[in-house]
Amino acid sequence: MAERRTAVKAAEEPDFLQCNDLACETVGGRVSVRELIMFLLHQTNTLKHRTSPPQFVASAFTEFGKWMDGWETRRKRRPGHDWCIIQLGVPGLIYGFDVDTSFFTGNHSPFVSVQAGCLDKPPTFTLEGDRTGMAASDSQLAAVAKLESEAWPELVGVSELRPGYSDCCHNYFKVNFNRRVTHLRLNMYPDGGISRLRVYGVGQRDWSSVSTLQDVDLVALTNGGVCLGYSDAHFGHPRNMIGLGRAANMADGWETARRLDRPKELKVDQRGILQVPGWEWAVFRLGHAGVISSVEVTSRTPAGSRRWVHTFSEILFLCCTDSSPPSPPLLQLRPHHRHLYREAELTLTRPVSHVRLVIAPDGGVSRLRLWGRPTAITAAPTNQKTPASKL
């Protein structure tokens, strides 16, 4: 790493990409039923986690033909078009889609549309095992007909898709829809292939059923937490820290580039803390304002773990700058370890709606949990922006 370049966002890359993927399989997203199940490959590939990019294996073939990493339907020889129903892993507000056609060059779907529904009590669909090469069964079609999904509101009208070459495979669609979504209907016109569908948004939980005496993870993706900004995400986006469960690997967490202003020879002070200038930060909006009673930080594996970390909370209307040095007490981290800081170690007891995590000097954190009780903030933030409109 001879020089540190600031990542330049492509002109066509939208802000909503900073939001969470509400449909990926790691948060419970799944295909409920499809009108024409893949003739050549398994459709649930389209919901794989963003850290699992589509692959192309030139020598891979199946009994149905060439293996492709995504959803591909047979060449249509009857009236209509192909579609599937997708259940979001995290219901919430959707700000945009990435319909990725990677490696589908002569066989991508030429057009697509997306519809949305909010089902309070969704029916149970039985996928009846691996039905690669077969259409949906009569019982599946009968069950989905009750949803009347063809009449759901359109989030994306019929739009053209570009082929899956590396310079044009990401087809971005911004959404302006202010209602909670639990299910999507993805329509392909008339047939073809899609490698990944990424659904960017913010989770929306029904907090009326949560007791004010119950401790919950206020920043969790499933509870509506979202990353609003960060100083560096060279190897991994900070939003990964609020994902479900334990991190699957090094890619499933926040990791920054190494700071180039670090000394040629590292020294420690009397407390054994490295004397390295600088820090990196990430700001999160909680799913619900609340009083944080404990902070859980899981550090990375030894190859990328952090030596120490600062954490502190700020509500939205307070100044939050990345140019001033962190002022809260220093918390030292051990590599590949789950650290739990309880109420006695925390200095802030008032309700907060936003938090800022600072790591010094650089590195990565696997998971961040902020346990607390939801409550109201008396002085409400003003001019609050959604991640889709401004990060």
Automatic annotation (TrEMBL):
Ranges for domain Allantoicase: 54-202, 224-298, 332-374
GO biological process terms on file: allantoin catabolic process
InterPro entries: Allantoicase, Allantoicase_dom, Galactose-bd-like_sf
UniProt xrefs under SUPFAM superfamilies: Galactose-binding domain-like
Domain of life: Eukaryota
Gene3D superfamilies the record matches: Galactose-binding domain-like
Cleaved signal peptide residues: none
Sections of the chain in a coiled coil: none
GO MF annotations, alphabetized: allantoicase activity
Family stated for the protein in its record: Belongs to the allantoicase family.
Name of the protein described by the UniProt record: Allantoate amidinohydrolase
Gene source species: Seriola lalandi dorsalis
